[in-house]
């Protein structure tokens, strides 16, 4: 058996595709799993040109979501434009996109309680210090009415941080 996304013969593990029927998912390799959880290497994901046409709806949904995350690349936008999904499948694709609007600098979804790292030195207004690049912020809180903001503790102070300046750990 090979990876449902990249067709690698590496060891596989089950990946649950959120927002759909219970136990919906596919078998993927560690490389795909690691990239889904973090940074996407665009060249690795050219394999979506094949997996997006899978007869397995969970694989179609996962492929569509990954293409959305890669929309900065022309080839990914072209593949997204070619992909046709019925209304029910498209609703499944969109279900998690709406629920997880908070995304880090690489497009990885952020959730309540996640740990992030600052990717830039940030002067903290009113606190008199600069939060240094590489600082870990543990147990973040999502600002519900603004997907560009999260809250976290840095040097003992609770501050608001723009999501474009953090990377999920």
Automatic annotation (TrEMBL):
Domain of life assignment: Bacteria
Protein name: PhnA domain-containing protein
InterPro entries, A to Z: YjdM_C (IPR013988)
Residue ranges annotated for the Protein YjdM C-terminal domain, each copy included: 102-169
SUPFAM superfamilies found in the cross-reference section: Prokaryotic SH3-related domain (SSF82057)
Lineage: Bacteria, Pseudomonadati, Pseudomonadota, Alphaproteobacteria, Rhodobacterales
Source species: Aliisedimentitalea scapharcae
